[in-house]
UniProtKB/TrEMBL annotation:
Gene: gltA
UniProt protein name: Citrate synthase
Record organism: Exilibacterium tricleocarpae
Gene Ontology CC terms: cytoplasm
Alphabetical UniProt keywords: Acyltransferase, Transferase, Tricarboxylic acid cycle
Classification of source organism: Bacteria, Pseudomonadati, Pseudomonadota, Gammaproteobacteria, Cellvibrionales
GO MF annotation terms: citrate synthase activity
Pfam families associated with the record: Citrate_synt (PF00285)
């Protein structure tokens, strides 16, 4: 009834096992982080406070929160040689390709905190990763558009600093719109953790071999990239652009129901939720607020998305299959309105999800664990004798 399961350590891999971090009730659309509902955290908390909760199990008091925020702030800069590392990428490299490489390479710059048996090393690496992901994400974008990298400004909040590094330049440093900064913070928060999804399970499996935390998070970034997982937000925007007008929606819904057609309604359906993804509801409200703030409330993409949601929720196929909008359905519209290009959407997802990956990694290696070793159901040949070449 608590939503956890016991497992046979001798058989089921360590990667898929008990956890105290996040609870999902897919049938009723419930998502709890350490017992707190996601909609309450989105309304009353912020990303770094939620990071503290996921890592430590309790909401921080004022002193604990200030100390944690200061700790993260002190780690926002990356070693200057990371700039040369980025310049080695083709300018047109996909930002996710750069993130996979850059985060994996962090262990070569921060090898003073990769002894996973040392709790202090684990703590410092966790802070370094949460702090440096926005800096690295912004460096991907700046390299991609051929602009100079922006250093973090530690007088700014976490999400505000990210938008500063994304859109500021050494020539001018535009004020960050507080509504956009709050929306960005909420996007990070809504992506923070989601139980043992594909990328989190990848991180746990990598961690179970004793790999260093930077390598484990790089493995999570790689797994997140696919369009069935974290790449869906980019695919939703491409789909909405392709639909182009509300008059075309019925045609695309019909394609999505046609088993012979590979087309899927991106941003719909989920491995666990058979009801509304509670994050999608919060994202939709935030979408309205951001577009109103920017005078884009008549954004045609939003109109298509809302009409598509209405049609799909009444369509017998989607009702029968229990397909609802998920976290990726509205997030892309907000990010596009903020000015973030579509190929950066999954990088943003990875940045927000880093704390969830770290929390699960840390939970696993701070207890007794075995290397994950999923078994298979073998369906190949029975044993047979070798056939010499001249007899084949
Ligand atoms: C994320 O696991 C997590 O927690 C992930 C995540 C996180 O925070 O980490 O929540 C983030 O990955 C969200 C999902 C983002 N992906 C997309 O939006 C891509 C589009 N969605 C589909 O690819 C799909 O819904 C999946 C991959 C998400 C789930 O696919 P499943 O496991 O097949 O879903 P299902 O078992 O509920 O499907 C039931 C039926 C199937 O048809 P039948 O085999 O019964 O005939 O519905 C069909 C599916 O083929 N179906 C869809 C569909 N999604 C499922 N049909 C049309 N359009 C869709 N989007």
């Amino acid at each position: 009834s608590k939503g956890y399961f016991t497992y046979d350590p001798g058989f089921v891999s360590t990667a898929a096992c008990e956890s105290k971090i996040t609870f999902i009730d897919g049938a009723n659309g419930v998502l709890l982080h350490r017992g707190y509902p996601i909609d309450q955290l989105a309304e009353h908390s912020d990303y770094l406070e939620t990071c503290y909760l996921l890592l430590n199990g309790e909401l921080p008091n004022a002193e604990e929160k200030k100390s944690f925020v200061d700790m993260i702030t002190n780690h926002t800069m990356v070693q200057e040689s990371m700039a040369r590392f980025f310049r080695g990428f083709h300018y047109n490299a996909h930002p996710m390709a750069m993130m996979c490489g850059a985060v994996g390479a962090l262990s070569s710059f921060y090898h003073d905190s990769i002894d996973i048996t040392n709790p202090e090393h684990r703590r410092i690496s966790a802070h370094r990763l949460i702090a440096k992901m926005p800096t690295l994400a912004a460096m991907c974008y700046k390299h991609h558009i051929g602009q100079p990298f922006m250093y973090p400004n530690n007088k700014l909040g976490y999400a505000e600093n990210f938008l500063h590094m994304m859109f500021g330049t050494p020539c001018d440093d535009p004020e960050v719109n507080p509504v956009l900064a709050r929306a960005m913070d909420k996007i990070f928060l809504l992506h923070a953790d989601h139980e043992q999804n594909a990328s989190t399970s990848t991180v746990r499996l990598a961690g179970s071999s004793g790999a260093n935390p930077f390598a484990c998070i790089a493995s999570g970034i790689t797994a997140l990239w696919g369009p069935a997982h974290g790449g869906a937000n980019e695919a939703v925007l491409k789909m909405l652009d392709e639909i182009g007008d509300v008059s075309n929606i019925d045609k695309y819904v019909a394609k999505a129901k046609d088993k012979s057609d590979p087309f899927r309604l991106m941003g719909f359906g989920h491995r666990v939720y058979k009801n509304f993804d509670p994050r999608a509801k919060v994202m939709k409200e935030s979408c309205d607020e951001v577009l109103r703030e920017l005078g884009l409330e008549n954004d045609p993409l939003l109109a298509i998305a809302k009409r598509l949601e209405e049609i799909a929720l009444e369509d017998p196929y989607f009702v029968e299959k229990k397909l609802y909008p998920n976290v990726d359905f509205y997030s892309g519209i907000i990010m596009k309105a903020i000015g973030i290009p579509t190929d950066m959407f999954t990088v943003i997802f990875a940045t927000g999800r880093t704390v969830g990956w770290i929390a699960h990694w840390s939970e696993m290696i701070s207890e007794t664990y075995k290397i994950g070793r999923p078994r298979q159901l073998y369906t190949g040949y029975d044993q047979r004798d070798f056939v010499p070449l001249d007899k084949r």
